[in-house]
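step 4 of 6: structure.
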Amino acid sequence: MPDPVIPPARWSRRQEAGAGSPHISRREFVRRLGLGAAAIAIPGCSEVQSPLGPGTSPPEELVLPAGKDPEAFIRHSPLEFETRREAFGTSGIVPYERLFVRSNLPTPDASVVEDRDGWQLAVDGVRNPRTLTLRELKTLGVETVAAVLQCSGNGRIFFPHGAGGSQWGVGAAGCVVWSGVPVRSVAEALGGVDPGARFTTGTGGEAIPAGLDRDDAVVERSIPLEKGMTDALLAWEMNGEPLPLVHGGPLRLVVPGYFGINQVKYLARLAFTRRESAAAIMRTGYRLRAVGEEGAPGQPTMWEMSVKSWINHPSGADATVQRAGPVVVHGVAFGGARAVRRVEVSVNRGRSWDEARLVGPDLGPYAWRPFVAAMTLPAGRHLLVSRATDVAGNTQPRDRVENERGYGNTSWRDHAVMLTLS
Amino acid sequence: MPDPVIPPARWSRRQEAGAGSPHISRREFVRRLGLGAAAIAIPGCSEVQSPLGPGTSPPEELVLPAGKDPEAFIRHSPLEFETRREAFGTSGIVPYERLFVRSNLPTPDASVVEDRDGWQLAVDGVRNPRTLTLRELKTLGVETVAAVLQCSGNGRIFFPHGAGGSQWGVGAAGCVVWSGVPVRSVAEALGGVDPGARFTTGTGGEAIPAGLDRDDAVVERSIPLEKGMTDALLAWEMNGEPLPLVHGGPLRLVVPGYFGINQVKYLARLAFTRRESAAAIMRTGYRLRAVGEEGAPGQPTMWEMSVKSWINHPSGADATVQRAGPVVVHGVAFGGARAVRRVEVSVNRGRSWDEARLVGPDLGPYAWRPFVAAMTLPAGRHLLVSRATDVAGNTQPRDRVENERGYGNTSWRDHAVMLTLS
């Protein structure tokens, strides 16, 4: 079995618009976002292979959002910051300071969080459609859920065909606690969902950049109606504080167990609809298809996540564990749309596996769980891997499913850690 | 039943040293800490009754530790910052940005967290006593626990006799996730605990201020041996990030279910001892006794916490809920040394109670749980209270237990929220 190969970061030859639009090139899309040279240039430079290290002064465009730990991130673009593998701990939650950032459109002006309770949400597809303020939403109920937030393209860097988009390794993911009102409570308060509605559709409130067609740029995603009505939340709080602006504050649609793209930030409209959104980000973007194919409505969309795990320590980048001897290997595991049941680790490329121990509180089926495995490693070169199994018996596969955009990578082999001990 | 009375903040006439020493006055103790006028003056000024509001520039001495949310705190002293009632959410955990601060000695220089893995811990009272680095400790095991961190004096402000010390309301408490190595794993790795040992004793690594006797100033606490050997941790991580300096990083003794004073910061020595520490903070400080009595070894020490809850929203300070109508009341509840089972709320001064609903993941027996209760409140003046019951059937009492230092206040009446709705 060959070592995992990390392909050079580059744009795919099959460029596509950020939101999956066939109408304009990704380069043109990014230009119109106003992000300029940085966003274009980064994937082609040495950023991914030699991330900006601590103490390096990043280009102005890649300054982290306020309060983010400068040592915790790989800086992909002005809207994309990945948590370094070694920055994940064993607490189960990822604090704001270390949580990855991925935005599809420029972050709204901070003025939107100056009067959080005044934020307005239009609700359609109910008996009594109306606009509610966040102040009103807060009177309709409160629920709290811990859930993994993961970008569809997390693990894209391991696809050998050079899938377009940010070259995420393991860190376009985090586990956080969300709190807000259940979508079903809002629907009930407005007289119930329209008969015939089949989808819960959320629309982001970002400004559409000048020169872009609304449907090409708007962040609008549909999920099955029943998912919305069971455990989706309109969240105004994350990890015990008002939802930070860069993560979608004042209000975000949270769909536990689903990929990040469905967790619509700056939620401006919630609708119960007969059809999926016609926005490019739903119609053609975030569609799973063979390498070389264009995105199209008939293909599977990035909804439910699958079982996945990876080792965070030793990371291979941590100078403190370069010596042979005892080590407590740790990582994170989650089932995606269902709970994780067990995790195994291997130090011999999957020829044999040892059971790892899940540690800390169980934060529920949509959270990830830290796992640990105490072992003694001799001097030499080691390839450490982990694989998780969910409660339905699905085990993380050895190989990725090749696909055009590099989505949904759960390959245990791809996520291996290579370690040289002396 | 009278409304709760908040006494004016003031030093008790029965001054005592910060660490409970009978040898010097508290004023002299504080002077020798080098904290100067601020620490002395604050309790006598308007700070407690009219906390510095957002936008007010605090005296330099009361500048918050880096990264703390300036709007989330009541500033008591350079070493004491209380989380505002309205700054608690419903996520179950309190993020670093909003977690209270209480230190018994000045915070060590930040250089101690520059090489975290190089931090040294002396371990005594084992078959093979030795000094271990944090790097070595990390090879001995990892466990994770969510636990309430609460100052013994939380709720002191409600004591009518003017108990000495910071006038904490509800916010000298928070629930966080700790991760580190179990104390028992360290003891086992060093050959096991000495026969005859009855206590687990932790010593803080802060410098002893010049002019102070070591035993008067050192933060050294003993807990029962068996508590140390069951679920105490040596924690290097909090809420998913390396333990912040102000909260005891690089290494802190965590004793789930026990008051904050036992969670020794900057842990420099761990010892399994036949006797309790002779330090003033153990011998005479943090002893529960009648008003007017001096601290003495025979009195109960502040170990296990008891069942407690309070309402955080509406807080009475939040302009957004001053209108009559529907409101989702929320707060937090914990059992202390055991899990919480239920929470009730009352809007009629305890004449009748309604069951509240616990929300979010259960983070384990030592964590707190957010509770919510949806209700409709008419215009007028309302006194909202909550009371919790733990799994052993202990219910939070109506009245506080009067005691000299204002410790361990769990009175539901004291923690009431007064609300005027129009």
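step 5 of 6: annotate
 - The CA atoms of residues 349 and 392 of chain A lie 25 Å apart.
 - The first helix of chain A runs from residue 26 to 33.
step 6 of 6: archive
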